[in-house]
Amino acid sequence: MFRRFILTVFLLISCPFSSILLAQSEPIIEKTPLKVGVVGYPPFSDYNEETFRGISVELWQEIAADANLRYSLIAQPGIQVGIDGVVAGELDVLIGPISITTERFQKVAFTQPYFNAQIGLLVSAEKVSVWSRIRPIFRVAVISSVGGLFLILFVVGNLMWLAESRRNPEQFPRQYIRGVGSGMWFALVTLTTVGYGDKAPITKTGKIITSLWMLTTLVAASSLTAGIATVMTLLLSAEVIKDFTQVEDIRDKQIAVVSGTTGEKWAQIYQSRVLPSPNLEQAIERLKSGQAEGVMFDVPALRYYLYQNPTAPLKIADLAVSFEDYGFILPLDNKLIRELDIEIVKLKQSGRLEEIIEREIKGDFENQ
């Protein structure tokens, strides 16, 4: 009995220590490869069915090599989809040009920032032509309104001539063309409330027609004024639509954005009419087709697009919407984040991170 008691005590004491020793001797290597989602756009991430490349991808490869991490890269269709994958446990890490925001911090954890980017606006670089300024005048609605007004003046002019030509030939001559012309002139000055006083009805019929016409012009004049004001607004704003000098200029403008990005958030903050698109290419197509007046997105990606498409009649507006840091995403309370932070700081201090950024950007641009 005593011998059995001694053996039991020995086992109880030795087991914890043996577990600790085993744990200390075991290398810190992930048992299964990390599922690393890749999201974004060149020059930070670019991928096809076989290869991944870009600043974010190469940075991760350097970090993983130094930290002895095994992983597999998985392409993601969008930033929000990737974030949802991390929250759901489907991804262990999400890399790419991902802006660090307070809203995202509530759901996931971010590493140290590795890049500072600017949110900007891509707009048309085409100069405003004379035709584009006067084109609103020739729209169907404007032409039909002017035609309708002329028809009404012609009808009123005829009525006034029929009522006044016999008893008031001095002001409304009996000759048809001259008489109707005088009647239309009388109708026009009454409509515009100018009232020169050079013509006035003297017959009862003429006065009744004039009274009815004066009542009608109270409504017609306001409608005409509103129409003219609308056309003038379009003419005067033709140049403003092409040039954005401050972020307040996007208010009430049609701005294309990529769904789930911070560009969409800033467009909403500045009260533009947001046109969501699934990716940057479709957002830019909306700008080219005239559906949108600008594309709000990260400036590095917009510059990359312009380098790839040097003949595109587009430019980046001279305004800064916001400055944001990029970081990698991990689940909340993930123990790996400290190790990744250390590796990012090492790469910053050694200058290696700057080398990666310069090589990727210059390499992409020089190959265009």
Can you tell me about this structure?
The structure is a single chain. With 368 residues, the protein is of the alpha/beta class. It folds into three domains: 128 residues, Periplasmic binding protein-like II (D-Maltodextrin-Binding Protein, domain 2), CATH 3.40.190.10; 85 residues, D-Maltodextrin-Binding Protein, domain 2, CATH 3.40.190; 110 residues, Helix Hairpins (Orthogonal Bundle), CATH 1.10.287.70. It is 52% helix and 15% strand. The strands form four sheets. Strands 7, 8, 9, 10, 11 and 12 form a six-stranded mixed sheet that branches. Strands 4-1-5 form a three-stranded parallel sheet, with helices on both faces. A two-stranded antiparallel ribbon has the order 2-3. A hairpin with a 4-residue loop joins strand 2 and strand 3. Helix 2 crosses helix 12. The radius of gyration is 37 Å and the shape is rod-shaped.
Task: Supply the CATH superfamily name of the largest domain.
Answer: Periplasmic binding protein-like II
The number of domains is 3
What would you say the CATH architecture of the largest domain is? 3-Layer(aba) Sandwich
Rg (CA only): 37 Å
The unreliable regions are 5-30, 364-368
SSE string, helices as H and strands as E:
HEEEHEHEHEEHHHHEHEHEHEEEHH
Total strand count, please? 13
Which fold does the CATH topology of the largest domain refer to?
D-Maltodextrin-Binding Protein, domain 2
Q: What is the residue-averaged pLDDT?
A: 81
